[in-house]
């Protein structure tokens, strides 16, 4: 295949298929090489608009992500394969895409979604001409696996048996190599139904066929099933002979997980037989199991992250759907109002009145839309990130992925993020409440926030405020911008000012201006992010907010040390 790639004058379509062949060759041995060749094939197929090559390259690329436990990437790539296969009416690759999505859903423990995908894959394979029996058998095998467990109920066993029988009926010859996986499942069902003789006969048939076809994986699994049955029936020597056969085959395949399972059973059987090599076997098993546990930890982290991303994506989809429904409702309301207004064209007074009402309602709608947008943005920016961190931290703790000595710190982080999320949510609600559009209410909020963040951090804070002779109102945008400027200033103090510093906050009127000053009297730590530099993002945000209110903001170091932020905004 490499020689075909280097051959001069080779058509690009042939090069694509050669690259796909190389990626298929490496999938079982070298996932990095398989991914690289799949990516090259995909890029070339898309440049040449070679649909058959594109869909096959996507399938191989998705498989490399799946076997690497990168489930989000695997899901995206299988979905891309699904779209291309639908566009081409390629039923075979349509089945492959649904099968891959079902495997991803199974890995993410979403069994109902997995069954949906597997059912769609089965329909696609059955509609192929000629019928794709191999694909259907694989789907039925995966569906039956979803019902099989040591604690499976009688109903689950009946469902699994029905699926296995459906698969066995697809091929008339009972010794077909395509049926060996289903025969292993049938033997497991018979064993769980307390029919050991029938299970033995079924597994021996699968063993004979897989050995004749050099299918080492199925042959090894059959030997392992037979060894487990002999162990249950208290025949340790027979079980030992069988499990050694299985372990030899699994070593040849490089299947470390199955080798570890075989070593574990071998050590137990040797101990039962009082054989001295039991200890050495157990030690080999322990070493291999430690290696596998490290891999499983990485896979579990990837699975937890993928499950979290999938949940977050579904939440975004629900939010977008709600926005669409709101937009449709508003459009319907606009249509009704337009018809009402047009009905009053013959009466001038009613027309003017209707126009005034319509203008008022449009302004009201714009205000409501702005409020919704503001609420959504604030919740996303201020609360969404914290909730995402909390969800991911708790997922990792529930999966048991953190060492025991790190868990208290992680739980403390969850608690801190939860308190911060509540604080941010309170800020959002306060910003949107029209009852807070006064200077005294703003002052109360400034006091509360300073005691929430400065006092626990060891900073002293005092307020210098002119007693207002009246209860002046504040426009909501001015109040909101002033509060965010105040929070930004306190954040800089916490970051750059030493703990002994005293923070002085003053709020007073100067004519038509409202003046807010935040001063810390401690020396500022000079770093690349020192707030005294004009390039700081925090000060830039403060100035931008002040300008949005028609005011101005200054920030400068004090001659005596420390730092001061002063904001002046017009309020009437």
TrEMBL record:
Q: Does the keyword Acetylation apply?
A: no
Q: Which residues form a coiled coil?
A: none
Quote the catalytic activity from the record.
ATP + protein L-histidine = ADP + protein N-phospho-L-histidine
EC id: 2.7.13.3
Record CDD domains = HATPase_UhpB-NarQ-NarX-like
Q: Which UniProt keywords apply?
A: ATP-binding, Kinase, Nucleotide-binding, Phosphoprotein, Transferase, Two-component regulatory system
Pfam families per the UniProt record, alphabetical: HATPase_c, HisKA_3
Keyword Cell membrane in the entry? The reply is no
Annotated Histidine kinase domain residues: 378-572
| SMART domains attached to this UniProt entry | TPR
Q: What is this protein called?
A: histidine kinase
Tell me which species this is from: Hymenobacter negativus
């Amino acid at each position: 295949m490499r020689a075909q790639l280097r051959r001069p004058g080779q058509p690009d379509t042939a090069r694509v298929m050669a690259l796909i062949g190389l990626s298929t060759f490496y999938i079982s041995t070298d996932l990095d090489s398989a991914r690289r060749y799949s990516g090259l094939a995909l890029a070339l197929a898309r440049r040449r608009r070679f649909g058959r090559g594109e869909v096959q390259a996507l399938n191989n690329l998705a498989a490399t992500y799946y076997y690497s436990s990168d489930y989000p990437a695997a899901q995206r790539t299988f979905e891309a394969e699904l779209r291309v296969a639908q566009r081409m009416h390629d039923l075979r690759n349509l089945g492959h895409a649904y099968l891959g999505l079902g495997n991803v859903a199974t890995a993410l423990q979403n069994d109902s979604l997995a069954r949906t995908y597997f059912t769609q894959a089965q329909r696609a394979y059955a509609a192929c001409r000629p019928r794709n029996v191999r694909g259907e058998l694989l789907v039925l095998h995966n569906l039956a696996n979803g019902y099989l467990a040591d604690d499976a109920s009688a109903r689950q066993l009946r469902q699994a048996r029905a699926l296995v029988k459906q698969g066995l009926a697809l091929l008339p010859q009972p010794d077909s190599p395509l049926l060996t996986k289903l025969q292993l499942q049938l033997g497991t069902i018979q064993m769980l139904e307390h029919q050991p003789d029938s299970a033995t006969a079924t597994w021996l048939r699968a063993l004979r066929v897989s050995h004749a076809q050099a299918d080492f994986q199925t042959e090894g699994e059959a030997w392992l099933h037979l060894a487990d049955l002999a162990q249950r029936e208290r025949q340790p020597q027979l079980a030992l002979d069988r499990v050694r056969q299985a372990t030899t085959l699994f070593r040849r395949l490089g299947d470390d997980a199955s080798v570890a399972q075989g070593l574990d059973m071998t050590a137990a059987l040797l101990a039962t037989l009082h054989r001295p090599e039991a200890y050495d076997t157990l030690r080999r098993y322990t070493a291999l199991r430690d290696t596998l546990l490290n891999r499983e930890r990485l896979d579990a982290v990837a699975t937890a992250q993928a499950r979290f991303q999938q949940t977050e994506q579904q939440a975004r989809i629900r939010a977008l759907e709600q926005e669409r429904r709101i937009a449709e409702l508003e459009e319907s309301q606009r249509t009704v109002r337009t018809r009402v207004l047009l009905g009053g064209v013959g009466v001038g007074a009613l027309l003017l009145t209707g126009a005034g009402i319509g203008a008022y309602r449009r302004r009201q709608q714009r205000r409501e839309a702005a409020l919704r947008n503001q609420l959504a943005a604030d919740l996303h920016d201020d609360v969404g990130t914290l909730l995402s961190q909390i969800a991911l931290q708790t997922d990792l703790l529930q999966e048991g992925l953190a060492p025991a000595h790190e868990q208290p710190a992680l739980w403390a982080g969850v608690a801190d993020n939860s308190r911060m999320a509540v604080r941010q949510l309170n800020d959002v609600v306060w910003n949107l409440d029209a009852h807070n559009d006064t200077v005294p209410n703003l002052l109360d909020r400034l006091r509360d926030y300073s005691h929430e963040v400065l006092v626990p951090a060891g900073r002293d804070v005092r307020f210098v405020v002119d007693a207002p002779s009246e209860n002046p109102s504040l426009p909501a945008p001015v109040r909101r911008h002033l509060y965010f400027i105040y929070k930004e200033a306190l954040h800089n103090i916490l970051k750059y000012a030493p703990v002994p510093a005293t923070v002085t906050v003053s709020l007073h009127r100067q004519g038509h201006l409202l003046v807010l000053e935040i001063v810390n009297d401690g020396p500022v730590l000079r770093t690349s992010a020192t707030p005294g530099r004009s390039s700081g993002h925090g000060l830039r945000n403060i100035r931008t907010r002040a300008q949005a209110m028609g005011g101005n903001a200054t920030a400068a170091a004090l001659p005596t040390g420390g730092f001061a932020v002063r904001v002046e905004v017009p309020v009437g």
